[in-house]
Amino acid sequence: MLKYIPATDRHHAAPVSWLSSYFLFSFADYYDPKNIHFGPLRVFNDDSIAPNSGFPQHPHSEMEIVTLVLDGEVTHEDTMGNQTTIPKGEVQRMTAGTGLAHGEMNRTDKPLHIYQLWFLPNQKGLAPSYEQKDLDFLDSKNELVPLVSGQKVLEDVVYMNSNSTIYWANLREDKEIEFKTFPIRNTFIYVKEGSIYVNGTELGPNDQARMTDEHVVQIRARKDAQFILIDLPSSEANY
Length: 239
What we know:
CATH architecture: Sandwich
Number of strands: 20
Radius of gyration: 17 Å
Number of helices: 0
CATH topology: Jelly Rolls
Organism: Hymenobacter persicinus
Binding site for Fe cation: 58, 60, 102, 104
Protein name: Pirin family protein
Strand content: over 45%
GO molecular function: metal ion binding
Largest sheet: 9 strands, mixed
CATH class: Mainly Beta
Domain Quercetin 2,3-dioxygenase C-terminal cupin: 155-232
Structural class: mainly beta
Helix content: under 10%
CATH superfamily: Jelly Rolls
């Protein structure tokens, strides 16, 4: 079963002048009891941050936090002692665990575009930890590239404490990808740009597909496209 969610259904938030954010799930002042999470995927925010601004230090706990940098670069500092820069094409994961605080700033003169995703962890009480990796995912061609995973069969990815995997794809016009899944798994797709058919349903920029009880996900590009695909457990027992 595929649930299509158009871009216009995203919640737009601009609480300060330097931030434009689209929430795909309930977050901050946006609450919809029917849109809290999809499996362990609890937050998906599509954020644009103006030059020389950003999020000052703030706390988190009991969450796996993943940031994908699509344009610009993030300056990151946290209470674990990490002080890093995350440029375009790199991926960051923080295990908030028992608690940490961090700040995310755009200290450049150019706009910053990121996706930030939060996952419910597969266990509570973990020690906070951090990982960052250059996966150059924005230049991949006609394949699903794994970026972050808790499934240890995958190599050269950022690890997270969730039985889930984040993939990225750049799919040329008329090219196809087949993703094999199981009825006990969920599949989430969010399109950055271009147009794709997902099991016959067309998705354009910033559209979503949330799929359950599928065996195969067939994806064909109607136009050159970039999108994120997330493989998720459907049962809380398997998070």
